[in-house]
Design a protein that fits this description.
Blueprint lengths: L1 H12 L3 E4 L9 H4 L5 H19 L5 E5 L1 H4 L2 H17 L3 E8 L3 H13 L1 E3 L5 E2 L8 E3 L4 E3 L3 E3 L6 E4 L9 H10 L2 E7 L6 H4 L10 H12 L12 E5 L4 H10 L5 E3 L22 E5 L1 H4 L12 H20 L2
Parallel strand pairs: 1-2, 1-13, 2-3, 3-9, 9-10, 10-11, 11-12, 12-13
Antiparallel strand pairs: 4-8, 5-7, 6-7
Length: 328
């Protein structure tokens, strides 16, 4: 199962880090920025920079997370960069997470699941051609012609995607079903890293039976309870912010088989010591760092290095800090 592959990749590299490729024009080094004269140029340079980052980081980290918002802002050129980044990361042997936070119900949720997890089938059976030189069809001797067959199409090469489950189970089950049928995974928002998440996620339920985020975690556990891999974890996981160490420890104790995607490290203020309680014997989570790695060249500590070397140094420092904190 894909969750077992993620757990194993973390063990092999002794590093529960996922690099967030939230790459924008502002995070490109000045020498690259000068090559950009249009949004299309920016998208091309982002793709190239991401590839060089992946080449430098692939032996250090087990996974990358690509946040679609930073690519959507550059239009269809940006979405091509998004897709090509995922493709390249997969080709380099990394686990890929599409950070898209999709949220809808019914048929629309199913369409989002098809976009990022299962793909969709285009049935070309109604389109025929009698040209014997046409090689893409299948020759049907009964019809005496070439006939197109159903084709599975997948545009985004991701192993996991992020999902906002606060619309309820009918907005989540299409994603869960796609995971079950295609060996994929999802991370559902439970307790997010932003300060104002308390406004809603920390509200007490009627009868003082717990908080909203705790109830959401219970649903996540139930949705993924029949999909556990040999690692003991389910590919139906939870997003729990590193800036919430007490809640992270609480949820780990309550749901030992739940795998966490843990944002908030670095730029948002969390450190390795803050995530210790999110793990079970050093397992059960992966910690995201985006700006702290891809734009490390902007930091005084890494000045004098190339942008890629600064990213490598920052990722190595984070890995070493996590190894110490988690006794890996």
């Amino acid at each position: 199962m894909i969750i077992d592959q993620l757990v194993e990749a973390i063990k092999v590299k002794r590093n529960p880090t996922v690099v967030g490729l939230d790459t924008t024009y502002e995070f490109l080094p000045p020498t690259i920025q000068r090559l950009c004269n249009s949004p299309a140029d920016i998208a091309v340079q982002i793709t190239d920079y991401n590839r060089r980052l992946i080449d430098g980081l692939k032996d250090i980290v087990p996974a990358v997370k690509v946040q679609s918002a930073y690519y959507e802002m550059y239009g269809w050129d940006g979405m091509r960069a998004f897709a090509e980044t995922l493709d390249y990361a997969k080709a380099c042997g990394l686990i890929t997470i599409a950070d898209v936070k999709r949220n809808d119900i019914g048929a629309t949720a199913k369409a989002y699941a098809q976009a990022y997890l299962s793909g969709f089938t285009v049935n070309f059976n109604d389109f025929r051609i009698n040209d014997d030189n046409f090689k893409n069809g299948v020759y049907d001797p009964n019809k005496g012609e070439y006939v197109f067959r159903p084709q599975l199409v997948r545009y985004f090469n991701c192993d996991f995607m992020t999902v906002n489950g606060y619309l309820g189970s009918d907005g989540v089950m299409p994603f869960v079903d796609a995971c079950r049928e295609n060996d994929k995974g999802i991370f559902i928002l439970v307790k997010t890293s932003n300060p104002s998440s308390d406004d809603f996620q920390d509200l007490n339920l009627r009868g003082n039976t717990g908080t909203v985020y705790r109830r959401m975690a219970k649903f996540v556990h139930e949705w993924g309870s029949d999909l556990k891999g040999t690692s003991g974890f389910s590919p139906i996981g939870a997003v729990v912010g590193a800036t919430r160490p007490e809640q992270g420890a609480e949820l780990r104790h309550a749901f030992p088989s739940m795998f966490f995607l843990i944002p908030g490290f670095g730029a948002q203020g969390a450190r390795a010591s803050d995530v210790r309680g999110f793990f079970r014997d050093g397992e059960g989570g992966i910690v995201n760092n985006s700006r702290g790695i891809i734009s490390a060249w902007q930091k005084k500590y890494y000045q004098g290095m190339t942008a890629v070397n600064a990213a490598i140094a920052a990722a190595t420092d984070m890995r070493n800090d996590l190894r110490i904190a988690l006794d890996l």
